[in-house]
Amino acid sequence: MRIKILIVTSLMVFLLVAFISPIFANAGINPSELEGTYKFAFWAFLLGGISAVSLVLGSMLGLLWQPKPIITAAFTAFGAGALLAALSVELIAPTVMEFVSESKGSLHNTEGHKQSLEFIFLIAGCIAGGFLFFILNEALNSQGGYLRKVSTTISYLNYKRNHRFRVALKRLSKIKLFRHIPHAHMAALVKHIRHFHAKQGKILFTKGEPVNRLIIIEEGEVSLMDGDTVLEVIGAGHMIGETALFHHAPAAFSAFAKTPIKAFEITQTDFNALRDDCPELQHIMEEESALELMAEQANHSSEQNNNNHSQEWANAASDHIHPVSYIPSQTEINDASKKHGSAPLSIWLGIFLDGIPESFVIGAGFLLILTAKLGSGAVVFADVVPYTLIAGLFLSNFPEAMSSSIGMKKMGWKAGKILILWTSLMLMTAFGASFGYFYGAKIPNYIEIGIEGLAAGAMLTMIAQTMIPEAVHIGGNRVTGLSTLFGYMAAVAFKVFE
Fold this sequence. Notes:
Radius of gyration: 29 Å
Shape: elongated
Distance between the termini: 47 Å
Helix content: over 70%
Low-confidence stretches: 1-35, 290-303
Largest sheet: 4 strands, antiparallel
């Protein structure tokens, strides 16, 4: 809750500063200069709007048309490549080229010190931007912001799933039999652990009948019954069925889900397959009785050793959990969305976080071109457009909005709500570009380059963390690689023709 309040407060401060910035930025300017300043600020606003109007267009396309996954992936990768080119050509390359050019002369004169300082601020800004995006992105994901993209949804739900697997493995480590499984066969064990859901009232075991699975409860409660008598109610972290499974004995009690439960299981079939995969396990079971393998020594020293061994085994087994091992179903995604009451706000803030850096860069980039053009006489709008940057942002925003809108529609969002979200972000980007224009003229050049580095670092991290994985998850490696290349070359072509 505190994180959400902090984010909303920061957003309100940003909006306030963006709206009042012209008042302070233009203090001391005469009326004729003020008129020109506001005209150029409006141009910056238009540039921000043009780069972000693709958010609305992409959203509309996503609501009207649900393309094949490979097409969505191609669009997304193409946009990622275009944005990579725009960042490289417009933000990183100019400062680096000036630094390299100056270093061929001398870095000990005034101009050399200036270029060195700008280069240092660029690098520091890139690093800071990457870390800033990562921290804020993680904070928003914990509040439901991960639902804004397919890739972030898959990655976050996999992270939560793998965490649950680690908890299950820690519980299995208490069983001596499993601790005898060598590290080389850990992957086989993990492969045979299944996750399942059971509705309230579902019968798990019936007294007197054979037990064909071991169950580890993750969420919910299970009642253990002897006829009509409740023996015990167990919850998360408890394990049932292991003794009967290993002894091939009938269930000593009945068990049913008192509440809806989530649990892990290893079935008799899985256990038999595990023994086939791991001959050592069969050998151990032949040499020692199941009762001995299940028992733990009572004295404190042995118990401590067992605990240490259990922890080491659980850690080793956890290393065999693949970081991204499954694609969650739409039902799982919808359930996750319902659990986060603040998901819509977090999704909006998450997408806004993706767009904050680009809006400032548009205004600052526009200012640099404008300053150079003003010295040569009258200037028209077409003369001061940073075509490569605008093209890269436009091409990257379109597939992002399209794929995200498709996901939001599947989660049950209304079309009007989705369009309002993207339209508001388009306006925010436009105002952010004006903000970048006003303040780009008021800060030292090395600070401006540092901010551009901050934006570049944030956007590069965003591309690597969300856009490229998005394309890979949806369409695979082949379409992602070639589409990224085509997007990169398209943005470079804009620079050539510019």
